[in-house]
Amino acid sequence: MATLAPQPQAAQAADPLDVSRAELYRDDTWHAPFREIRARGGIHRTEDSDFGPYWSIASYKPLVHVESLPELFSSEAGGITLADFKEGTDVKMPMFIAMDRPKHTGQRRTVAPAFTPSEMARMTDDIRRRTAEILDGLPIGTTFDWVDRVSIELTTQMLAILFDFPWEERRKLTFWSDWAGDIELVKNEELRQQRLVHMFECGSYFKRLWDAKIDKPPTPDLISMMIHSDAMAEMDQYEFIGNLILLIVGGNDTTRSSMTAYALGLDQFPDERAKLEADPSLIPNAVQEIIRWQTPLSHMRRTATADTELDGHAIKAGEKLALWYVSANRDESVFEDADAIRIERPNARRHLAFGHGIHRCVGARLAELQISILLEEMGKRRLRANVAGAPERVAACFVHGYRKLPVELSRY
């Protein structure tokens, strides 16, 4: 009888509920594992992933609980993404969203005046004019990339205005945003170093803009606001770059993903699109619903500062928790028929796409305004975006967005 050769030890099976896997978002197959985590109570520990061990907080109620305890679940202790800081390779670039109180409070207050209701009123006409120009320049009946021609262009123009950035070079902001927000780059040492180079390029460019505004009267742009504040005037170069990255990614990737979701999502739910086309008064609620349905940032990370218990799970000090907004916004116990767009959804505003608590997105009003105006101007022109091919999605568990979306415009 032949002797069987010894078999190599089987590799540890991958956790099917490891929702940090990039392919889940690239292929839009993240729904099932999150649905299972929610069915199990919304909390799950993954021991082995490309980002190391972490807790998934995937249901609405426990996520809000964690966000409501910023001293116990810190943004500063480990950063805001599942990717860990790598000593000797990475450079710490502090940003106020990844700070705890009290420093977070002072820096957030510095930029908050750029997003007040009065500032939104001041910017509305300009946003509407620029949106109209872009829409009027689009072809009817010819396929084009909605992401590039509409979503990126509108958000990049807005960023250029917020920063008083040279208009003709505004696509640099898109380039830097794409590099800064790509969490997958940390898995490749060469790409990790390339990103660092681009971030320093970004910082050097903005340092020139900063220097040009020193000793000048205040102006309503973010750089001037930083210069004329006690909390941010004396930032070192790394903190300066960190906060720039935060504002660029926050203002670019998030709004552009929701603008693309408007075209893609309403194409998937034509009955809802017909309601919106028939009744423009539904636009404000539709904007909230589209943001909920898309959830442009899949997660933010928190790090436990002490041993604690969360719904019966023992969380140890130093362990990281991923707050999966993308899953909480599909929590069936909060949002009925959660995977569908329902533009009249009565609780659409309860979505967590902007976060919750002290770290709730400071630019939420501006994002809502930009998307609302896009829907209004599309309606005025009776324009409909018809999806003409499969979207190319971002392959990452942080920015939940799109690289391309072929569409063809028609009139209704």
Automatic annotation (TrEMBL):
SUPFAM superfamilies: Cytochrome P450. GO terms for molecular function: heme binding; iron ion binding; monooxygenase activity; oxidoreductase activity, acting on paired donors, with incorporation or reduction of molecular oxygen. Signal peptide: none annotated. Keywords: Heme, Iron, Metal-binding, Monooxygenase, Oxidoreductase. The keyword Cell wall biogenesis/degradation does not apply. It comes from the Bacteria. InterPro entries: Cyt_P450, Cyt_P450_B, Cyt_P450_CS, Cyt_P450_sf. PROSITE patterns: CYTOCHROME_P450 (PS00086). Pfam families: p450 (PF00067). The keyword Metal-binding applies. Belongs to the cytochrome P450 family. This is Cytochrome P450. It comes from Sphingomonas baiyangensis.
